[in-house]
Amino acid sequence: MPTEAVADLELRAAVPTDLPAVAEVYVAARAAAVPAMPAPVRPEAEVRAWVSGWDLSRHETWVATSGGAVVGFASLTGDWLDSLYVLPGHARGGVGSALLGVVMGLRPQGFSLWVFEQNQPARAFYAAHGLLELESTDGSANEERSPDLRVAWPGAEPLAFLRAQIDEVDDDLARLLARRVALTSAVQRHKPVAGQAGRDPEREHAIADRMARHAPALGAARLQRIVHTIITESLEVDAAADGSEGS
Ligand SMILES: O=C(O)C(=O)C[C@]1(C(=O)O)C=C[C@@H](O)C=C1
């Protein structure tokens, strides 16, 4: 939350000559955020060179200036807010909120970003501005190998935004279910007793327990019911393909 407003704050689209100052903010803000953020994995010089070389038609970047100097920036690619950083000496002065306001104006249909799980100050900042934590990962897909969360601003039409997200997840889920059905079918060819008669409750419990480690919010008992239904339906698909039973 702002404590003291930054003097003569101005917000404008970045031009290429801003990029070395933007890089400076990036490096300084990330270094100051340890341990709220994992330690940077790339040398500072490499990060500076990377940011300084951004193609601004792809990395849509806005800067916040005070007294003409860049004190913060926000950078978007598509519907992703890749970075929003404020110079440590200007933190909590409303710069971050002002930049986030610009981004909301640029993407009224909503946008997403990744935040490290351990970055409680950033998570609190985004939550205070109405952003939602929609997904968590174990960090295996990011450079820092640090658990993170996908946070989204659902925009001016939250129902449409969230339904679009549901459609994306359901597309993935359908592909996963198809893969799983194929495996359930294949396994049946290797069992002495196949199909419903050959169900193995112990194995199904173990599957649900394993899934609960990835989805603790659902819990093992609920996952057992879900797994039971998935397997029942999968075995029906298999039986129907065999031409012996099912609908
Ligand atoms: O592992 C087996 O024995 C299977 O038949 C596969 C499977 C599954 O789809 O995961 C299906 C039925 C059993 O009750 C347990 C697991």
UniProtKB/TrEMBL annotation:
Annotated SUPFAM superfamilies: Acyl-CoA N-acyltransferases (Nat) (SSF55729), Chorismate mutase II (SSF48600)
Residue ranges occupied by any N-acetyltransferase domain in the UniProt entry: 9-160
Biological processes annotated in GO: chorismate metabolic process
Record-level Gene Ontology MF annotations: acyltransferase activity, transferring groups other than amino-acyl groups; chorismate mutase activity
Domain Chorismate mutase per the UniProt entry, residue ranges: 153-242
Keyword vocabulary terms for this entry: Acyltransferase, Transferase
InterPro entries (alphabetical): Acyl_CoA_acyltransferase, Bact_Acetyltransf, Chorismate_II_sf, CM_dom_sf, CM_II_prokaryot, GNAT_dom
Name of this chain's protein: GNAT family N-acetyltransferase
Source organism (scientific name): Nocardioides donggukensis
